[in-house]
Amino acid sequence: MSVPGTVIAHRAGDDLAGLARAAAHADVLEADVRLFRGRLEVRHAKGLGPLPVRWERWYLLDRATPRVGLGALLEAAAPLGATLMLDVKGYDPRMPALVLAATRGWRARRPLVVSARSWRVADRLRGEPGVRTLHSVGRRRQVAHLLRRYRPGSLEGVSVDRRILTPAIVAALRERAAEVWSWPVDDPGLARELAGWGVTGFISDDPAALRPRP
């Protein structure tokens, strides 16, 4: 039985080969977007400034590993019909304008969700045509900061680590935003519990567990 709310396939867009498979079980396909040498890349792996080095969980990636541009993701996702979510990494002030320019064609046809740990990035994208923003929260102390910084009803959405959530925190976040999405959520029972608290979306590494095929 499917869980209530929106199912988001975590990092689905980071692997173009598995994009269609993820779309079969999710409403939203999530991808990490980073800026490298003026170009938007789709990858979870971190970099070392301008150096052509990428690393993931304390190991280096082979330099021959292909670099996937955001344009390639948009082209691959276009026929699938799912909503796309870009988790914008980093704090470069150029990111909002670059993301808007790269997704202009996409946003003319369907909405785009953008999540950002940098709230300045999210604020600059909020209100742009075809964009729905999520202010990302990964630590408990950031929840208090967000509640002080934004007045009730002023946000479109919040993306928050489920390990810091409580019913009271979800209620306070829902006062600021209509959408509260949470990660990581791979268990249907946990998703239903969070839905009972008011969480509206579940970012999952196993979307098939939350939304199995009929």
Summarize the SSE layout with pairings.
Blueprint: E1 6-9, H1 19-23, E2 28-36, E3 39-42, E4 46-48, E5 51-56, E6 59-60, H2 70-77, E7 83-88, H3 95-102, H4 104-109, E8 112-116, H5 119-125, E9 131-137, H6 140-149, E10 155-161, H7 167-176, E11 177-183, H8 188-197, E12 201-204, H9 207-210
Parallel strand pairs: 1-2, 1-12, 2-7, 7-8, 8-9, 9-10, 10-11, 11-12
Antiparallel strand pairs: 2-3, 4-5, 5-6
Helix pairs in contact: 3-5
What does this structure look like?
- α3 packs across α5.
- The chain contains nine helices and twelve strands.
- The chain is 32% helix and 30% strand.
- About 7% of the residues have low confidence.
- The chain has an eight-stranded parallel beta barrel with strand order 1-2-7-8-9-10-11-12. It has a three-stranded antiparallel sheet with strand order 4-5-6, with no helix packed on it.
- It has a single domain, classed as TIM Barrel, CATH 3.20.20.
- It is globular, with a radius of gyration of 17 Å.
- The protein is an alpha/beta fold and 214 residues long.
Question: Descriptors for this entry?
Answer:
single chain; 214 residues; alpha/beta; TIM Barrel; 8-stranded parallel β-barrel; 3-stranded antiparallel sheet; 9 helices; 30% strand; globular
β-strand percent reads 25-35%
Query: CATH-wise, what's the superfamily?
Result: Phosphatidylinositol (PI) phosphodiesterase
Number of strands: 12
CATH topology: TIM Barrel
Rg over C-alpha atoms, rounded to the nearest angstrom: 17 Å
CATH architecture: Alpha-Beta Barrel
Percentage of residues in helical conformation: 25-40%
Tally the helices: 9
User: Structural class, please?
Assistant: alpha/beta
Could you name the CATH class? Alpha Beta
**How many distinct folded domains?**
1
Shape: globular
Element order: H for helix, E for strand: EHEEEEEHEHHEHEHEHEHEH
Provide mean pLDDT, rounded. Answer: 89
Uncertain runs are 51-64
Distance between the termini: 9 Å
Strand order of the largest sheet: 1-2-7-8-9-10-11-12
The main sheet comes to: 8 strands, parallel, barrel
